[in-house]
Amino acid sequence: MMHKPAPTAYSLQPTAFSRQRRPKPSRVAHHSSAFTLIEVVLTIALLTLLFSLAAFNYLGWGKSRKLEEGKSRLESLVRLCRAESCNLGKRIELAIDEEGAIVIRVEADPIGEPNVFVPLEAGWAKNPPNDLVRVVRSELLGTSSWRLIQRGGDEELGEDDQPMNPITFFPDATSDSAEIEFRQADREDGLHLLVTINGLTGELSSQIFMPLTEEEKARAQWEKDHPSASSYASGSSAPPPPPPCPD
User: Residue 180 maps to which CATH number?
Assistant: First the structure.
């Protein structure tokens, strides 16, 4: 008859470790590793705010991007007009059509047909930045050959009309001095670009700005027409002087 081997000593005597109960997970530690409702709400609000700021900056950059690119291409166009006039020995004209698009023209026959400008056939002249910007106003600064030869004086504009004067470039590397205001080609409102051309030095300066509203324009015009009243309204201590008494 076979006998079963006696159990070993270590299997019969429980150790101190086996008698101890396993510790339960701490509730404090469990709660500290999770997010509360307030923390989740604050996180979502912060992310929403950051996303809104990023979207606002991106949209603002997108609006001014076309004006910045149009400004760069316009500066190149002005330099090319100046150089082409010197190379050909003829006057080059940067004209504006009824829709505010730029058209580059040349005085093809200065002797046989003076003051007659036709479209310039050069490749660069056929690619003005009309897809990015359109002219709102083109105003000559100082004396202009275009005014003296073609118009014989300034043209009277209507109340709501803006000057759309062409800019002439001469073979001696000079041009008309002018101030040109642009808007984005795909929208009437929004930011505008103002470019100033110094005809003697060829220097260009530009700035992007938000145009005045109709109400602001009316107020600015009224203050221009009534300087004494506007200064008194802005905080001057003395009222405007009364009109002189008749003798």
Answer: 3.55.40.10
